[in-house]
Amino acid sequence: MSKGEKMQLENSGRYVNDLIRFNLISQNVNVLRTGFLPVILAGIFLLLVALFGVYHFNVPNENILIFVIAAVIGGYMALNIGANDVANNMGPAVGGKVITVAVAVIIAAICESAGALLAGGDVVQTVAKGIINPEDSILIHDFRILMLSALLAAALWVNLATILNAPVSTTHSIVGGVMGAGIAAAGFGLVNWLTMSKIAASWVISPVFGGIIAASMLFFIQTKIINVLDRKTAAKRWVPILIAIMASAFAAYMSLKGLKKIWKPSSSEIILYSIIAFFAAWLISRPFIKKISSGLSNDKKQIYSLFNLPLIISVSLLCFAHGANDVANAVGPLAAIVSTYEVTTVEAKVAIPFWVMLIGALGLAIGLVLFGPKLINTVGEKITKLNAPRAYCVALASSITVLIATTLGLPVSSTHIAIGAIFGVGFLREFLENPDKKRLRPIHKLNHSSAEAFKNINIRLRRKLVRRKFVLSIGAAWVITVPASAFLAAFLFFALQYLI
């Protein structure tokens, strides 16, 4: 080997080593970015909340510790709500390939924050919707410890659920926390068991309602638009009506849920606004859909694109309403603690200062940006395959189910509704896309080849369009949420009594 060849070989070796080192550095940077960096940024947010508490809270010095701890735990809970709960609204749009995860995070962060700050209201029923009634049976100090324990227990549980990729109800988490801490503070008599039984019933009511409505909507779309010969003509006729139904449902939904803390219309007004929204949306969408569909082919995927804009609008409204309602899960107990420094009694309903709502809104948005993409992918892509019409049915089912349940006085969870709707869509797909049943039967002949055996196994497996493991894991997480939060809150209550 000549001297030049040796030098060339050495240079090639150094080049390969440089590539290996660069690859290792890149991997380490990615690990830091996806693993440690979000945690560090979340820690910085909580530190800023603590500093804000130290320098700006107007409370006696001997009580500043509880006050600051309450603010930090409230911020921590808001981070977890953003990481876990928001995925239920944005996941289907991402799974349907209508928007990317990055776009979903941006839209959700804006809409959730706007809902919290603009429509979050100034009064909240902080004692977890009537779970306990502490006015005459608990001391002020114990009540503060109770709220701290409930809030921290709920936040820890939601954090664990997020790590395990399980979308859970943050409302049920805080309810379980308040129940457990309330029992630890004053016994079982403090708990409103009738309310708790209704919440337990919602574990079944919410996903079943959501699944039935989403499956029904998808069945209608499949039979009237997707599975007909002339899809374009069918789409021109039916898509404006579907958009009108969406507008009507969301007009009522926003009146009942999204804006309920700043505007309370009567039932007749809500019905009137829904009818107006239906016909206005139908008249506006008809020429819009006609113009768009004129440039499309009769292909299914082309027709799917007609649902993109309605889907984006619907998930944005869901996020706005979620921010207006569920931010109270983070800041409600904090507001309850704040109120005890202003009055000498424990109040079931208290005013929320703007700075408290701001902590909740910022924490929710930051938690979504830092930790939300993981669960958005799980909800949107891991349970069943979605497209724009299927995701549209999930979003519409969420609003319609809440409307029906509210009218009937049934307690429901938006998380359970959305996940139930996704399962409903998936199981309907299995029913509609079921291959020839004869091919699904196991073959008992002994002389078929291994290739034929694998082929038949694959055919049978293809029928399962919903991942069963998520049915079991998510269902288990729902059932465990209230008792897990309750036991953890009770433990924390006894511990914090000695520490604070």
Textual characterization of the structure:
The protein is mainly α. It has one domain. 78% of the residues lie in helices and 1% in strands. The chain has 17 helices and two strands. The longest helix has 54 residues, at 3-56. The chain is elongated.
Question: Can you summarize this structure?
Answer:
The chain is mainly α and 500 residues long. The chain has helices spanning 3-56, 64-84, 87-95, 101-119, 140-163, 170-186, 193-226, 231-258, 267-294, 300-304, 308-339, 354-382, 388-408, 414-432, 437-440, 450-462, 468-499; strands at 123-125, 349-351.
Radius of gyration, whole Å: 26 Å
SSE sequence, one letter per element: HHHHEHHHHHHHEHHHHHH
* Major β-sheet profile: 2 strands, antiparallel
Structural class: mainly alpha
The number of domains is 1
| Helicity range | over 70%
Main traits of this protein?
500 residues; mainly alpha; single chain; two-stranded antiparallel sheet; 17 helices
List the helices and strands and how they pair.
Layout: H1 3-56, H2 64-84, H3 87-95, H4 101-119, E1 123-125, H5 140-163, H6 170-186, H7 193-226, H8 231-258, H9 267-294, H10 300-304, H11 308-339, E2 349-351, H12 354-382, H13 388-408, H14 414-432, H15 437-440, H16 450-462, H17 468-499
Antiparallel strand pairs: 1-2
Helix pairs in contact: 1-2, 1-12, 2-5, 2-11, 2-12, 3-4, 3-12, 3-13, 4-11, 4-12, 5-6, 5-11, 5-17, 6-17, 7-8, 7-13, 7-14, 8-9, 8-11, 8-13, 11-12, 11-13, 13-14
